[in-house]
Amino acid sequence: MSHILNIQNLTSGYNGKTVLHDISFAVGKGEVLAVIGQNGCGKSTLLKTIARIIKDNAGNISFAGVKLNNKNTWDLKQQGISWFVQGGMVFPTLKVSEHFELALKDKSKTEAANIKEECLFHFPALANCMDKRGGNLSGGQRQMLSFAMLLAQETDCWLLDEPTAGLAPEAVKEAVVFLKKMKQEKQKTMILVEHNYSVAFELADHVAIIKEGKLYDSFAKAEFLKQDFLDNHLYN
């Protein structure tokens, strides 16, 4: 499989502190790479660096043959990349309907209607929440709206920072079902940072472990589904 996202010799940090040290990996189109590690190891820093929120880095980041090092965060959608921030993409004061209007403002009327229809196909419960403000939604509803906003961007690669954090078990299951569909039906490429290892392992094709800012190793399903995988590789 040809690689669509390539990270080479990435060293990154913020406020003069180096967090990630000489990290290299590649992800194929339609693959899910789960990045796991203990708190403070640099997982979110990795996503923020790829998303160009953190620019204090050395090394190369490229997607679909385009170098991203000199890009701004707002350029990434045009390049085909979306970042799903931890906690979701919901504005507390905006109604659900206004979230759709904002996300689809650059689309033609027909395109916007089609994209909204697809979002509501995946998350039909949102149709009954259009007049609710983001701050009044339940955790599950906020997550549905966040995924709908992600889908509306029509990008090929998703950088997912803790997409199931704080969700009730049933909402976690729904999130996994949706992400699986996006992988299988739309061949979305995903880098998934996730503390819920059962979710990470269910979605991932490969699992990368970061320890103390360094990429310890990358494992295929045959390895990370073994019963003693975490004990042998993460906690030791």
List the helices and strands and how they pair.
Blueprint: E1 3-14, E2 17-28, E3 32-36, H1 43-50, E4 57-63, E5 66-67, H2 76-79, E6 81-84, H3 96-103, H4 109-122, H5 139-152, E7 157-161, H6 169-186, E8 189-193, H7 197-203, E9 206-211, E10 214-220, H8 221-224, H9 229-233
Parallel strand pairs: 3-8, 3-9, 6-7, 7-8
Antiparallel strand pairs: 1-2, 1-4, 4-5, 9-10
Helix pairs in contact: 4-5
Structure description:
By secondary structure, the protein is α/β, with parallel strands linked by helices. The chain has helices at 43-50, 76-79, 96-103, 109-122, 139-152, 169-186, 197-203, 221-224, 229-233; strands at residues 3-14, 17-28, 32-36, 57-63, 66-67, 81-84, 157-161, 189-193, 206-211, 214-220. The protein has a six-stranded mixed sheet with strand order 6-7-8-3-9-10, sandwiched between helices. Strands 2-1-4-5 form a four-stranded antiparallel sheet, covered by helices on one side. β1 (3-14) and β2 form a beta hairpin. α4 packs across α5 (139-152). The protein starts with a strand and ends with a helix.
Give the gist of this structure.
This protein has 236 residues and is α/β, with parallel strands linked by helices.
List keywords for this structure.
six-stranded mixed β-sheet; Rossmann fold; alpha/beta; 28% strand; 9 helices; four-stranded antiparallel β-sheet; 10 strands; 236 residues
Order of helices and strands: EEEHEEHEHHHEHEHEEHH
Give the amount of beta strand, in percent. 25-35%
Low-confidence stretches: none
Q: How many structural domains? A: 1
- CATH level-two architecture: 3-Layer(aba) Sandwich
The name CATH uses for the topology is: Rossmann fold
Can you give the mean pLDDT?
93
What is the CATH level 1 assignment? Answer: Alpha Beta
* Biggest sheet details: 6 strands, mixed
